[in-house]
Fold this sequence. Notes:
The protein is α/β, with parallel strands linked by helices. The chain is built from 15 helices and 16 strands.
Amino acid sequence: MQTYDRVFTGFHAAAMATNEDYGVIENAAIAVSNGVIAWIGPAVDLPQHSAKVIDLGGGWVTPGLIDCHTHLVFGGDRSKEYEMRLQGESYEAIAKAGGGIVSTVTDTRNATEQELFGSAKKRLQALMADGVTCVEIKSGYGLDRANEEKMLRVARKLGVELAVTMRTTCLAAHALPPEYQGDSDAYIDLVCNDIIPSMAQAGLADAVDGFCEGIAFSVDQIERVFQTAQAHNLPVKLHAEQLSDLGGSGLAAKYNALSSDHLEYLSDEDAVAMAKAGTVAVILPGAFFCLKETKLPPIERLRELGVPMAVASDANPGSAPVLSLRLMMSMACTLFGLTPLEALQGVTRHGARALGLGHSHGQLKTGFAADFVCWDVQKPAELCYWLGGQLVKHRAIAGEFS
Ligand code: DI6
Ligand code: FE
């Protein structure tokens, strides 16, 4: 007789445990112990047990969705800028004129930890209502030690209070703060000599990210950031090739980055480098859509090279005010040409890998976290097919059922 904490039955599962297919298990059962999947398979094969059984009453169970790239903690909003862009102003022109990211920096610096917590909590609850059980949150709107750390303390607290799996990323190299105008190297000194060491010491960051772009930092500057991260045993990731090709993804691959994100302007050479390094390509169709971009990321080539593709929200106040990861799955299919299977892989097994959690999250598999969602659908492809709506029937995080 097996002893489990609880057993779930009454559903079909898309286990997402291989690269090739959904890993369908019809009429499945999942047994959970200590927050981990202790057994999964067809219900008829379930070992004899004495645990409480919860019948989910139909639908499909997938791994809980993983949003591996967000900027959920920030002050204020940028709806004014949205209106300006609708009038024809470009994202880059607004940034150069002191708006854009820097305006969110002012609002974030002026916000208390409680205020940031309150506004980010609502956004995270929206993502969770649409199936997210694991989320990454970046800093990057503080741009000094105290405010960058404030952002990640809020993120950590959100993880605890909402019982979501939380990964935090130091994105101090996101934009040049106004007080360093004209001296971006001096700001990179601050990032490398002060902000990253302090965050590493405080255990506030699980990874280090940067924005490698004409309106942000150069490849050489980002390389200094990566070297610092490495010296503190923190894995790296990068915003690269969103608006132009600077070769950031090649640098990311050189530093064995967990992921390189955006990639609309990715060169073939850098795609090959990512494949060799095992760096995940995180595609962000929400930012592409909101900025009305036209250059598509080289999906076919990434597929051909076997680069794992993750899909994320990029939830941020400027280029992607996104509150639904499922909507991003849909856009990844419609705008970028992913299949619904690839989109689901992108928010489960590959999203996990982009966070360094590929060994424990994003698949329904023995020994993996019991984070899963039961969806009110007849087929997994419906997760991409429906835009909006309430498809989540039930959710379990670390086996805790709601
Ligand atoms: N790329 C993005 O998509 C966000 N940051 C970045 O480096 C945008 C951030 C913002 O506009 O506030
Ligand atoms: Fe981003």
